[in-house]
Amino acid sequence: MKFALKNKINDLDTFLLTDSSELIYIKENVLYNKGQNSIYDAKNEISGLKSSGEWICFNHTLESPKGFIGKYNDFQVFDKQIFKAIEKDCAYYGDRFSTTKLHLGETFTKVWNVEERLMVFMANNGFLVYTKDGININFCLDDSNLQLIWKYGLAAKYSWKQSADCIDGPSVKKQAEVIKFLGIYQTELWLVLNSGAILALDIKAGVESRHIKEGKMIKGESDFEGFKGCFGYHTVLDEKNGLIFNLSRHFYIEFDLNSNAEYFSSYSFKGSSLTHKLKLNCIGGFDMENIYGYEGSDNNRFAVFSRQQKEIIWNSEIEEAKGKFPAIRDLKYGGGKIYVLDHHNSLHIFQKD
């Protein structure tokens, strides 16, 4: 498998791929579609570009915040508000101290309003899950009443010890916190903790069903102090195959959600990592065969990782970003193309050769 550079767009602020893998991006405060046609001129600096179906939202976050939502060139402005998420025909917006759900259509209808700061939240399968402090989890029906079904607190049992910054220094006890809600699979809510573990809660009873914090080497050897990889911000829930997976340095780790295992499986790809001259920490997309990722450092290389072979099978580099930090700001995959945004805000578009 090889990819070749097919296009390059300079001076981008941000970009995304829609549900149908179409490119839209912001350049000099103007929103463009894949044909590089102007959709909307926002005049001021904009950020937080998101889409779902035909709906697009973004924000002005400097000076007086404003949120914009609409379809292509028809946008409605929400003064002193920013859009936080958009899913199907609903959007979530607010300020630092509130969150409102909005039903999208010919008219915008408020569904509910919460006068609280939701630090991490997720709407999934008709439920709203949120935490205000990273520790206490609230599980609600995502309807007009926002009925609380249960609460769950990350007790001391999930606390963990972080290694000291200096050699021979004492480890530091850390409070477990949620860093990412992965989603609901069958009857379990899966989330990632700052300890590198994943936790499952039964959505009916609101109790722990599984806590996966240890790994088992399936291929290769562990690193110093038995490190076998960990779960983090880029961890993916693959609902189609019933897997949770992540790339961590030169380890591919996965957990089979349909198994009774009490550990995740770890595969070292140190050999191909050295051959292709990069580690993989950031996932930009995946399909049935491959994962598309990058290192997230001053390394200007990105790669295709085979899910079956459990190793890197192709890589390339952005020459003009060599030695910069971060060399690659973002990477996404969709429609058979790899989109790489480099340190200089140039978007490089690669297509299968």
Produce a short descriptive summary.
The protein has 353 residues and is mostly beta strands. It has one helix at 270-276, and strands at residues 3-9, 14-17, 23-27, 30-32, 38-41, 47-52, 55-60, 66-71, 74-79, 82-87, 90-94, 99-103, 109-114, 120-124, 127-131, 136-141, 148-153, 160-162, 172-174, 178-185, 188-193, 198-202, 208-212, 215-219, 236-238, 243-248, 251-256, 264-268, 282-286, 290-294, 301-306, 311-317, 328-334, 337-342, 347-352.
Helix content: under 10%
Low-pLDDT regions: none
Rounded mean pLDDT is: 94
What share of residues are in beta strands? Answer: over 45%
How many DSSP H or I helices? Answer: 1
Shape: globular
| Total beta strands | 35
Largest sheet: 5 strands, mixed
Provide key terms for this protein.
five-stranded mixed β-sheet, globular, mainly beta, four-stranded antiparallel β-sheet, 353 residues
Describe this structure as you would to a colleague:
There is one protein chain. Helices cover 2% and strands 53% of the residues. The N and C termini lie close together (8 Å). A hairpin with a 6-residue loop joins strand 30 and strand 31. The mean pLDDT is 94. It is built from one helix and 35 strands. A five-stranded mixed beta sheet has the order 24-28-27-26-25, with no helix packed on it. A four-stranded antiparallel beta sheet has the order 1-35-34-33, with no helix packed on it. Strands 2-3-4-5 form a four-stranded antiparallel beta sheet, with no helix packed on it. The protein is mainly beta and 353 residues long. This is WG containing repeat-containing protein.
